[in-house]
Amino acid sequence: MSQLTAPGSPTGPVPVHGPVPGPRNAITDVPGLRVGHARLPGALALSGTTVVLAPPGGAVAAVDVRGSGPGTRETDALTPGNVVERVDAVVLTGGSAYGLAAADGVAAWLEEAGRGHRVGPDPAQVVPVVPTAALFDLGRGGDFRARPDAATGRAAVAAAAASPEGAPVEQGAVGAGTGAMTAGMRGGVGTASAVLPGGVTVAALVAVNALGSTVDPATGLPYGVGDGLRYADGTPEFPLRVPGPEAAERARRRLRELAAEREALSPLNTTLGVVATDARLDRAHTRKLAAVAHDGMARAVRPCHSLADGDTVFALATGTAGPPPARPGLLPEHAAADAVNALLAAVADVFARAVAHAVLHAEPATTPWGHLPSYRELHPEAFA
Fold first, then answer.
1. Are 90 and 316 spatial neighbours (Cβ–Cβ below 8 Å)?
2. What is the pTM of this model?
């Protein structure tokens, strides 16, 4: 799938230049990364946890927090200059601050696998560092006390470990995105990847739960589709039709009606993400990837980084592809920066595309709290 198509425009193959989506168009296109989701059981529960599991030996990790209401764990450990350079897993979870308990189950699973920061002569003497961020979804299933715990985290990391390398990633209202919403519409988990001309892969996984909207009121399309790519055969990533402003206004009216029918809850939200590359990067450049990913968030979610959002992005660099390639003909002192700049441009794009995938894959749901409409329900014209 790539570039959006207006009604009646051609959608046939066209020449492709520049980045293309990876084989799965997912964060698992970065070799060695695996993803697992777990949903909290119970008829009144609408929450869950997602784990991105690094390959054995971990990955260089960093974080950038821009929201004003973050719920996080182990983010200080990722500051450049601190002792822990690599991590084995990143956790995204629902449940607000309560949901941070999911990291306990992930840490226990990693310890049992002998994975973590070595602290003694025995290989089993490890302390797993498990960076975690939570979004607000309390009460959306009907039970305010239904939130992820250590068992949910263990189930998510076990699902990640059991998946084959390069497996597709389930998207929509799953894992950390189970109870996610964006401007009254259902959010969820989305992912995307890009393979750069030099062969390096850049990818993102997001849990979209924003105060702001992901839909352009002028077109009725998700903002993120404007960053869509074309596959190697020329087919577009987002073969959507433009609903138009009248359809977009109908959708907004419907959202207002549904919001009035639901019990008022605190308008707390948070969009979470993990960006990753197989390029070899140091901690400082990995942190820059996390920072620039917020540019993609700002393209795809408007507004973002509000007082009611705890927007947080983690970055992982596995290094399996070596250092990122620079353009030929540059002076040596300019080559390294040029190579990283290409990654930075790509990471903003893949983050925006992952946001669009999240809302396009979400399905509607009705809970005791109220009806949660999806993009597909509100904008059927886009899929005509």
1. yes
2. 0.93
